[in-house]
Write a structure and sequence with these properties.
mainly alpha, two-stranded antiparallel ribbon, globular, calcium transport, Sodium/calcium exchanger membrane region domain-containing protein, phosphoprotein
Length: 473
């Protein structure tokens, strides 16, 4: 009887039936000996089975109802006297002539909308990916000789760990900004808004400088360009970012050699430092304009219904908890970035894949996956304005914060980073901005225009894939 009771729910759940575990109140007496035998012989085996079923169902996300049933079974059902329990379905349930009550019930074993499920305000996918961070750090720092995992595996796990950590950093920033005044919110947003990318870029530049590997500089430039292209084409934005990218990317028309060495240090480099100082100032002024002095403009638009959807900042964590999570996630991000750059060389040595392609895809878009998903969700909710704003914020931070900060970092700690982009980066950025500006000039958007942008993005990725690797790499 016990065998039928405990194994049949797993098979019934797959059929999406309704299960009722009933306790007969008429059986008020318990057999102590049988209960002890059950706890010693039956419970351990079924606890392992239900634990595995709970773990697998939770990781699959869409079967979380099954995971909840197994968790409830582990916590309470299996600890009850087995002779007091029975299993039945609604279609086969017959009157028993006694009082019963339902202990466990499942109406739907699979629900596709569980991708929105949250745990304490955290998306379930971010929760499930958190153990990957621990695994990547353990194999990255403990297995130095690559005895248990290859460099390719360590690189893949470290890059995958960036996804949940960037999500936690974004959640921490949102929670702190929602509970703070303008000044604190602006400082937190400007400081930690690009911490994911900046951590990887600076770590890569430092490791490349110490190892004498100039290829990592090209990877950083490719990642910067890839992030910008993804934000412009994958999450279409206004062409106003064109004014931000031109001062830096225009340097790609120069090639550093003996003939123009003096030209670069006498004229080009001072211009780069000047622009890199002015762009963050412009970004701060923009924050003051948007969030402080002219915030009433945006409040009027929201009040008149020009913007629809969920805009209010949702506070999931307290201020100190968000700050602690933000600091811990940043430290873990630094460790994962170190593991990534340490084991990236075997990936770069692949003869069939261009290093440009690795930079503009994996290293550029993986940290932005949480923001891309948010933008797509807003678009699916018919909230196009907020969807475009997500991509716009990322693009603006790349142009007005990340690139200038890398230049200023190199000015204070020389790692040999020269802001000279190749022609492919330059024309891809210019073409993307012009195309988006032309498509959205009429202020309308439809699936055909979105498909056209995605196709152009894929064409640019193909160009990077078949492009030769940087000289000397």
């Amino acid at each position: 009887v016990m065998y039928t009771f405990y194994l049949s729910p797993l098979s019934y759940v797959a059929l999406c039936d309704v299960y009722l575990l009933s306790v007969s109140s008429i059986l008020c007496s318990t057999h102590r000996v049988s209960t002890y035998v059950w706890l010693l012989l039956g419970y351990p085996l079924l606890a392992v089975v239900h634990s595995l079923a709970c773990l697998i169902s939770w990781l699959l996300v869409f079967t979380i109802p099954v995971a909840k049933m197994n968790a409830r079974t582990l916590a309470s059902i299996l600890l009850m006297p087995p002779e007091n329990l029975s299993v039945s379905t609604c279609s086969k349930r017959k009157p028993q002539g006694c009082e019963t009550r339902a202990l466990l019930c499942c109406y739907h074993a699979v629900n596709w909308y569980y991708y929105k499920y949250t745990v304490d305000g955290i998306n379930v996918f971010a929760v499930n990916l958190l153990p990957l961070v621990i695994v990547s750090l353990v194999i990255g720092y403990v297995d130095k000789g690559n005895q248990f995992a290859s460099s390719e595996v360590k690189f893949a796990t470290a890059v995958g760990s960036i996804i949940p950590l960037s999500y936690y950093i974004g959640m921490g920033i949102a929670s702190i900004s929602a509970q703070s005044n303008f000044a604190v919110g602006a400082v937190v947003n400007a400081t930690f808004g690009s911490i994911t990318e900046m951590t990887f870029y600076i770590t890569a530049l430092l490791r490349g400088h110490r190892a004498g590997n100039a290829c990592l500089q090209e990877i950083v430039k490719s990642a910067l360009t890839g992030t910008l292209l993804g934000c412009i084409l994958f999450i279409p934005v206004n062409s106003r970012v064109a004014l931000s990218i031109s001062p830096d990317d225009i340097l790609s028309s120069y090639q550093q050699s003996e003939n123009n060495y003096t030209l670069f240090h006498s004229h080009i480099q001072p211009l780069v430092y000047t622009v890199s100082f002015l762009l963050p100032v412009a970004y701060i002024i923009g924050l003051i304009f948007t969030l402080k002095t002219h915030s009433h403009i945006y409040d009027i638009h929201v009040g008149e219904g020009h913007v629809t959807g969920h805009h209010g900042a949702v506070v999931h964590w307290s201020r100190w908890r968000a700050l602690a999570i933000l600091i811990i996630a940043t430290l873990l991000m630094s460790a994962c970035a170190d593991v990534t750059t340490e084991h990236i060389q075997p990936i770069l040595s692949q003869p069939n894949i261009s290093q440009y392609f690795i930079g503009v895809t994996v290293l550029a878009m993986v940290p932005e996956i949480p923001e891309i998903v948010n933008g797509i969700q807003f678009a699916l909710q018919n909230n196009i304005s907020l969807s475009l704003e997500v991509g716009s914020c990322i693009a603006v931070q790349v142009c007005m914060l990340q690139i200038p900060l890398l230049v200023l970092f190199n000015a204070f700690y020389d790692v040999g980073f020269v802001l000279i982009f190749c022609d492919l980066h330059l024309w891809a950025s210019i073409f993307s901005v012009v195309l988006v500006n032309y498509i959205f000039m009429d202020g309308k958007s439809d699936y055909f225009q979105g498909t056209a942008l995605v196709v152009v993005y894929l064409i640019l990725l193909a160009s990077y894939f078949f492009a030769p690797s940087p000289a000397g790499c």
